[in-house]
Structures are given as C-alpha cells and as structure tokens.
Amino acid sequence: MHPRIEDYALIGDEQTAALVGTDGSVDWLCLPRFDSAACFAKLLGDEDNGHWRIAPKGAERCTRRAYRRDTLVLDTEWETAGGTIRVTDFMPQRDRAPDLVRVVEGLRGEVTVHSALRLRFDYGSVVPWMRRTDGHRVAVAGPDSVWLRSEPEVRTWGHDYATHSEFTVAAGEKVAFVLTWHPSHEPRPAQIDPYEALRHSVADWRAWAARCRYDGPYRDAVVRSLITLKALTYKPTGGIVAAPTTSLPEEPGGVRNWDYRYCWLRDSTLTLGALLAAGYLEEAEAWRDWLLRAVAGSPADLQIMYGLAGERRLPESELPWLSGFDESTPVRIGNDAVNQLQLDVFGEVMDTLSLARKAGLPNKPQMWQLQRSLMRFLRTVWRRPDEGLWEVRGGRRHFVHSKVMVWVAADRAVRTLEAHPELEGDPAAWRALREEVHREVCERGYDPERNTFTQSYGSRELDAALLFIPRVGFLPPDDPRVLGTIDAVAKELTRDGLVRRYSTEDPVDGLPGSEGTFLVCSFWLADALHMTGRTEEAEKLFARLVGLANDVGLLAEEYDPVAGRQLGNFPQAFSHIGLVHTALALFGDERAG
To answer: Which residues form a coiled coil (predicted)?
Structure first.
C-alpha cells in the first residue's frame, strides 16, 4: 500500500526538514535549505528517487513511535520474534553543515537490522558517484556532497545504486549513523559526536518548550504545534515556511499540487499573535523583522509570498520524472501565485505591525515610514479585483475578504495614530477610506435575502474567510449579519462538520477536481462560535480537530472526512497556528482577535 500523508513524522534543524515514515524510511529531505532540491524524493515518486530506510530485516511498519516529550527527537520501535529495537531520528541544530542522525539501539533480545541508502540529488534525478574513504561512504554529484559514517563501523556494501549495511544489535548495544551534507567544492566539515548531539538536542528542545506560558487543556497539542512552527522556521532569517513539502495533493490523483516551501504574508498576523500569546517574544520579533525586510521597497512590488530570506523570484516549473504522491501529478516546484494581486496582504501587514507595536516589540525606525507608504499605494488600488486569499487561478474578482482586509489596513493605521499622535500621517484620508470600504462591503458583499456575506460582490457563493469579519473588528460578533454568515458557512460549507474553503463546484479557482476540508478554516469556525457565545460547540469542534492529528500530533493542510485521511502539504504551519490560536482563545488568558 502507498503510504498515507499521516504516516510521516517531521524532524529538522530549523533550516531544513525530513519526513520519516512508519516503515523507518526517510522519504523527503532537501539540503541544505527547505527550498533546496531534494536528495530523498521517494515521497513524490518511488525508491529510485531517493530514500534511506533503517528497520529490522524483513520488517514493515513499526510497532510504535513517538517524539520524546517536548522535543523534535523521534523514537521508532519494532518488536520482532527475536527482540526489540529503537531507531532514534533527529537533526541537531547545525553549526556549519546539516547532519541527519539515526541511532539504532537494542532493547530486548537480538535483532538483525538492515540499512538501505539511496541518494538521488536534484529531486531524485541525479545518481551520485559513490566512493569509500577513511571508513566513510562519500557521494558526489555536481554541487552536492554527502558523507555517511557509522559508530561503531558496520559492514557496508554497494548494490543496485544504493549503499547497504547489515548488522545485529543486542539489548544495550547501539549503532549510530550520521549523514552530513556540504558543498562538493569545500572540504569535509568537522564530524559531530552523535550521542552528544542527541543529548544536546533533547535538552535544547525541552528548554525551548518550557518557555510556553500556556498551561490549559490540550497543552501537549499546543506545545507540539509550537515545536512544529519552530521547526518550520528558517533560523538565519526568522522566516517561517508554510510547509516543508511540495505537491502533496489536495485531492488524491488530482492536479491541486503546490509548492509550500516559502513564506506567506497571509500567515503573518496569526503567526505573530500565536507566538506572542504563547510567550515566544524572540521568535515573534524575528518573524516581524523578516517581514519588514521582505516587504521593503516600493509598495507596488508587494508580494503575497517570499523566499526564506525574502527572495522575490519563485518561478514555477514541473518535474515530469516524478510520479507524484499517490500518482498525483504534476509535481511542481516554485509557485506562480507569487505574481498575483491579493489586496488582503496589505491588511495583514498593517495588522501584524500594529500588533507588534502594541505587544511592545522593539520598534524599528523604518516601520512607520513603510506603513505610510503602503497606505498611500493602497488608496490607489483597493478598488481593483484580485485573486484573493486562496490564490484562485480562475480570474480576478472583488473578493469580500480582500476588501475587509483593506478596511483592516485603514483601521489599524488610524488606531496607530490615535495611540501615537507623535507619528506623522493622514488620519482624515485613512478614516475616509475606512468608512468607504465598510459601506461598499456592506452594500455589495452582503446578501440580505440569505442574511450572509458572500465570497465576492454579486456572488451567491460563500467563503470560509468571511469568518474573519468579527475577528478583525469589521463588525461586532453579535451583529445579525455576522450571526447569519456563521450559520450559512456552518450549513453550506461544511462536510461532516468540517469546513471547506469554498465551493469547488463554482469555477472561481479555475481548476478541475475538488479538495478536502481545510483544517485552519475549521479552527476559524470554532473561534467564531466562541466569539458569538456558542463556546460549548466551539470546544467540541476543537476537540475533534485535535483528534485529527496523526499519531505524533501533526496536521496537514486538509482532511478528507469520508476517506478519513489527511491531504495537502505536511505538516502545515497554518493548521498548527490555528490550533494554537483557538486553544488560547478557548482556554487561555488571551482572546481571539
């Protein structure tokens, strides 16, 4: 059977990440960065596209697995007729070079273990030249070089363009493998002590998790989500990738397969709010600073997403040699949505910087100048149709959520001046913009017959993003139009109680096929229910959503309630941000919005 998305666990070093399956195989790893070409791409193809499996000889799925408490260190155990072993997988925070460490430990009896390493650079398309030197196996192809060693050294041989090892471990014995990447034109980096690295990794993650100030129900799920967000952070810049993967399908066998290894502005306010509320001020400041650097320049050039360091060019292409996850093609790298107009990002940037200022993050001298520049430009473009929050490829429309976020931009600008009258600005113009947008949305984006706001002007379709209307303060939670919209979304956009982004029967997104329910949208519904006094319903929905996480607490982008499986890129930052935010709203000191 083909692995399911939820069969995978995440390990990483805050610069890249790997996915490890329940069969002990590392099927996805991009080196040296999240957005680099993969050297293990079996996730999107087959074994010949690269993987590294360590497991008892002849065994298939593991018996059990779990992260060590409050860490990103993964323990996977197999019970066999001859005994029990544990494989511990982790990536230590790097000094210079990225390392993948896999420690095999005998727990009971005696077990024969097999390791099969197939390195395939450039997304599974390049077979490297392998050689042996000083007890190491060295793979080289073009710019990439990888070294493999074990402690103690075990018998290793090459066969079928793969590197194999086979050895026996008894109770109390250990064998550690270390895989290290470096540019092929540079000398081999210094070797790490795998056991010392393991001790440091466990201690570092637990110290970081201990900073979480949330102590309410579902704390384990909240901490796991925060650890996942930390793991998706590119430490050198503070940017947070939407997911560490590309092209995991929103519909098995379908074409809705996108590259999410970049940083989206749409996530900015929610990410900052979750980090601040949970007590992670340093990470929140790093994300704010990444945002300021990324959007610096002409407001006309503002993009919806950027690379890990703020790169602007993310050209989209297809990899035809990969068969796709569960035969879902095309496999894409890059993302052409980077060229879309999405007016909501102006509101998200303004809201994020407003939140940062209110939270007391150290001010940046250029921050208000940037905000003023964004507002000047927004006043000239806000009437245009756009592709909207969901990056539709079926043509521009006047999306209601986009206009609401234009209102947010004007509102936050006005409120900032009211709180800081020493700042320069144009409060009269911004108040006028705020009033005009509010009036237009209520007139053109509201369906009085059905008592609901709609996805776009003149449309009868709904959109889960409408749940943001009370959250951002556009209307109060008890407004009849808000209550009607929440009821309409819950009635018309849910499947088995979980929320879809929008109806895919309407050609708004320009794509064939359908998709699963969108997990973060379901968290938004829980938030909206709570804000309108339906807290018991919100808590039930939240409990169900937490229960959809896989056995190690990870959530993908979407969920298919009929097939009972996760869909989309994995793990998804947006989903875990939603979990943290809703937990804090329901059970913490902070409140949604």
So the answer is: none
Cβ burial of 212 (10 Å; 0-12, 13-18, 19+) is middle
| pLDDT tens-digit series, residues 368-418 | 999 999 999 999 999 999 999 998 888 899 999 999 999 999 999 999 999
Cα–Cα distance for residue pair 222/588, rounded to 1 Å: 11
Query: Among candidates 306, 283, 166, which has minimal Cα distance to 227?
Result: 283
How are beta strands 38-40 and 558-560 bridged, if at all?
A: unpaired
Domains and CATH numbers, the chain: 5-205 (2.70.98.40), 212-338+449-587 (1.50.10.10)
pTM assigned to the model: 0.96
Calculate helix-pair angle for 344-358, 367-381, nearest 10 degrees.
150
How many CB atoms within 10 Å of residue 265? 22
Nearest-angstrom CA–CA distance, 182 and 189: 7
> Rounded CA gap, 407 and 373, in Å?
16
Using one digit for the tens of pLDDT, what is the confidence trace for 127-176? 999 998 887 899 999 999 999 999 999 999 999 899 999 999 999 999 99
Alpha-helix residue ranges (DSSP H) falling in 323-467: 344-358, 367-381, 400-419, 427-444
End-to-end CA, the chain: 44
CA atoms of 212 and 379, how far apart (whole Å): 40
Axis crossing angle, helix 519-531 with helix 480-492, rounded to the nearest 10: 140
